Amino acid sequence: SGAPKPRLTFLGCGYLGSTYAACFAELGYEVLGVDIDEAKIAKLSAGENPIHEPGLDELLKHNLESGRLKFTTSYAQAAEFGDVHFICVDTPQRADGEAADLSYVESVVTTLAPHLTRRTLIVGKSTVPVGTANWVEELACKHAPDGVDVQIAWSPEFLREGFACEDVLRPNRVVFGVKSDWARQMLYAAHKALFELAATEDREVPVVVTDYATAELVKVAANAFLATKISFINAMAEVCEAAGADVTLLAKSIGYDSRIGNKFLRAGIGFGGGCLPKDIRAFQARAQEIGAGEALRFLHEVDLVNQRRRNRVLALAADLLDRPLGPAGPDLAGVRIAVLGAAFKPNTDDVRNSPGLAVAKALAKANADIVIYDPEATKNARRELPDVEYVTSLTEAVTGADLTCVVTAWDEFRRADPHAIGELASARRIIDGMNCLDHASWIAAGWDYRGMGRPI
Ligand code: UGA
């Protein structure tokens, strides 16, 4: 209490920036969201949210109304307004390789810095190669007017799609990579309301204060660990398939050991999304550059296991449909397949690097006649895979299907009644690509069921 709340800007109003802007306004800060895309800013200013994220619409509307949240395309206005500026732009995989593309980070910093007139903190949130904060510091100092003290901090985000607002408002930790006391104090001030919210809910948010490099690495190390955990259980699924064992019970059993933990041990068609796949590649590329390539060689295997799982669905389809599996994959001509799902995981409309959509593409390429149903991601999926049939309900999708494949673990699919669906399908054959169905009830309803890493 006492010290005024710093005013915050979020530079880049994509998934990350728009979520942070709305959540920090909700916490009581004066917030400005900044983006060069005029159409996006016009929409956000009108309370229209371009992304599907539970709870975000309400937070946007509520805080636009309260006046604490505003949006602009003007970097001059951003510099005038903000005490702390958060870099929230995307760092996609470069077109020419596996490294991260930092051109958006660069343009945000070099556009903002010349407008600064007072002591300012710029905080990196984007996922970046280690060493980026030092580079941003040089860039900012070079482009800021003489005599203006511009300082840097790195504070990675760990939010999950589908839980983004919750993860921003109630993080399991925050990491502050700083060089000066002032930067550390400003970061605490910019998060004070977050700590206060935790206190009212009898929680604590652990804070790790560290240097730039550690803060940058925390993010990619966390994602590399999660990816490795998934590929580990998918590798076990391969072994289970060879041994006639059941990976779901294996995962359950090892997960009881709290050192291992039961989360992120679901075998399936592999991990996807806008983060894990690109992050493990960029991490390897960066480690190579700084002479630590050998340390991350295992991530190459993690990637290979992950890609391999998708082929398993094709092999299972060929087996269930009695089609030979040639070296070029099966020929599934004349077969109608209901593909349930397209999003890379449930509760999102995101199809970036979606393993489910990759499976759908492979089935279509094998000449199957596929029909896709996803509760949220149809619009995005259609862009990636235009020439197949999309329907707007589960029942439409399964009607007349010779084979049903679940590729995204939506609740709607888990809750589906195997008897009712069996009445609509032309054959009771199902591949559970995410091991998300209650297989006993499907088998009891007469379905020929195939899971991932489970005995046939
Ligand atoms: C991931 C991380 O979980 C976040 O902590 C991180 O902040 C975020 O990336 C990021 O870097 O921004 P997200 O991409 O939203 O979040 O997705 P996850 O929930 O991690 O799922 C990733 C993929 O793994 C999905 O395709 C999911 O289906 C798959 N998965 C997950 C499995 O195959 N098995 C599991 O047991 C868990």
TrEMBL record:
<dbReference type="GO" id="GO:0051287">
    <property type="term" value="F:NAD binding"/>
</dbReference>
<feature type="binding site">
    <location>
        <position position="40"/>
    </location>
    <ligand>
        <name>NAD(+)</name>
    </ligand>
</feature>
<feature type="active site" description="Nucleophile">
    <location>
        <position position="275"/>
    </location>
</feature>
<feature type="binding site">
    <location>
        <begin position="158"/>
        <end position="161"/>
    </location>
    <ligand>
        <name>substrate</name>
    </ligand>
</feature>
<keyword id="KW-0520">NAD</keyword>
<dbReference type="InterPro" id="IPR001732">
    <property type="entry name" value="UDP-Glc/GDP-Man_DH_N"/>
</dbReference>
<feature type="binding site">
    <location>
        <position position="345"/>
    </location>
    <ligand>
        <name>substrate</name>
    </ligand>
</feature>
<dbReference type="Pfam" id="PF00984">
    <property type="entry name" value="UDPG_MGDP_dh"/>
</dbReference>
<dbReference type="Pfam" id="PF03721">
    <property type="entry name" value="UDPG_MGDP_dh_N"/>
</dbReference>
<dbReference type="InterPro" id="IPR036291">
    <property type="entry name" value="NAD(P)-bd_dom_sf"/>
</dbReference>
<feature type="binding site">
    <location>
        <position position="278"/>
    </location>
    <ligand>
        <name>NAD(+)</name>
    </ligand>
</feature>
<feature type="binding site">
    <location>
        <begin position="264"/>
        <end position="268"/>
    </location>
    <ligand>
        <name>substrate</name>
    </ligand>
</feature>
<dbReference type="GO" id="GO:0000271">
    <property type="term" value="P:polysaccharide biosynthetic process"/>
</dbReference>
<feature type="binding site">
    <location>
        <position position="272"/>
    </location>
    <ligand>
        <name>substrate</name>
    </ligand>
</feature>
<feature type="binding site">
    <location>
        <position position="352"/>
    </location>
    <ligand>
        <name>NAD(+)</name>
    </ligand>
</feature>
<comment type="pathway">
    <text>Nucleotide-sugar biosynthesis; UDP-alpha-D-glucuronate biosynthesis; UDP-alpha-D-glucuronate from UDP-alpha-D-glucose: step 1/1.</text>
</comment>
<feature type="binding site">
    <location>
        <position position="35"/>
    </location>
    <ligand>
        <name>NAD(+)</name>
    </ligand>
</feature>
<dbReference type="InterPro" id="IPR014026">
    <property type="entry name" value="UDP-Glc/GDP-Man_DH_dimer"/>
</dbReference>
<dbReference type="InterPro" id="IPR028357">
    <property type="entry name" value="UDPglc_DH_bac"/>
</dbReference>
<feature type="domain" description="UDP-glucose/GDP-mannose dehydrogenase C-terminal">
    <location>
        <begin position="338"/>
        <end position="439"/>
    </location>
</feature>
<dbReference type="InterPro" id="IPR008927">
    <property type="entry name" value="6-PGluconate_DH-like_C_sf"/>
</dbReference>
<feature type="binding site">
    <location>
        <position position="91"/>
    </location>
    <ligand>
        <name>NAD(+)</name>
    </ligand>
</feature>
<dbReference type="GO" id="GO:0006065">
    <property type="term" value="P:UDP-glucuronate biosynthetic process"/>
</dbReference>
<dbReference type="InterPro" id="IPR017476">
    <property type="entry name" value="UDP-Glc/GDP-Man"/>
</dbReference>
<protein>
    <recommendedName>
        <fullName>UDP-glucose 6-dehydrogenase</fullName>
        <ecNumber>1.1.1.22</ecNumber>
    </recommendedName>
</protein>
<keyword id="KW-0560">Oxidoreductase</keyword>
<dbReference type="InterPro" id="IPR014027">
    <property type="entry name" value="UDP-Glc/GDP-Man_DH_C"/>
</dbReference>
<comment type="similarity">
    <text>Belongs to the UDP-glucose/GDP-mannose dehydrogenase family.</text>
</comment>
<feature type="binding site">
    <location>
        <position position="127"/>
    </location>
    <ligand>
        <name>NAD(+)</name>
    </ligand>
</feature>
<feature type="binding site">
    <location>
        <position position="161"/>
    </location>
    <ligand>
        <name>NAD(+)</name>
    </ligand>
</feature>
<feature type="binding site">
    <location>
        <position position="219"/>
    </location>
    <ligand>
        <name>substrate</name>
    </ligand>
</feature>
<dbReference type="GO" id="GO:0003979">
    <property type="term" value="F:UDP-glucose 6-dehydrogenase activity"/>
</dbReference>
<dbReference type="InterPro" id="IPR036220">
    <property type="entry name" value="UDP-Glc/GDP-Man_DH_C_sf"/>
</dbReference>
<comment type="function">
    <text>Catalyzes the conversion of UDP-glucose into UDP-glucuronate, one of the precursors of teichuronic acid.</text>
</comment>
<dbReference type="Pfam" id="PF03720">
    <property type="entry name" value="UDPG_MGDP_dh_C"/>
</dbReference>
